Amino acid sequence: MSFRLKAAILAAFALSTAAAVSASDMSIAGESIASVASLPQTSSAGSQPAVVFAAPRETAQPLASDHPVDAFSTDSDSPATSLAALVDAQGAPEELDGDMQCLAGAVYFESKGESLEGQLAVARVIINRAKSGRFADSLCGVVYQPSQFSFVRRGGMPPIRTHSRSWREAVAIAQIAMNDSWDSRAEGALFFHARRVSPGWGKAKLASIDNHIFYR
Fold first, then answer.
1. Is the pTM of this model over 0.85?
2. C-alpha triplet 100, 165, 95: angle, nearest 5°
3. Which GO terms describe its molecular function (predicted)?
4. Contact 107/66 with Cβ under 8 angstroms?
5. What DSSP character marks residue 44?
6. Average pLDDT of the chain?
7. Rounded average pLDDT over 171-187
């Protein structure tokens, strides 16, 4: 084979190889472009679509000016600063049911004219007895239990001056005691007696309030 023929063959082979490589490169690029085009469009790492956070519904907290601090506060929501204030805040019911009538009556006859603290302590003793399981299980049952309260005569109470301040206070104290709205200084007491007597019970003394001494 002549030198010129060999050179022509080598040149033709080189051209054929270059064409094949170029076609292969175009095929790979095309696959890459098609692959990228088929992926969903997403933002690059570290960036977030602004529209997600710009929507007004994403606001979690209203402005302070929309709800002033005292917009929903009322005097009735404020806690009473004293037992007297709590008594004044009680609304007198139009009609007392049986147990409330018995409780208010006992407060009226046992502690009329005494301090509100003393009246509350008397009311709490009656309620404590009804819950204790050692006495009757109703307030009227406790009040009318034989030989317990000196104002009970022949199974009944004397007449009550229902228009008096003392009765209004007794009703309010009964309501407060029933709702457990104010702690008594003799909390937990089951017994009491007047200061003028000394029964020698040997019970745990809790408090002395006005004319009564209270025991557990």
1. no
2. 30
3. hydrolase activity
4. no
5. P
6. 75
7. 95
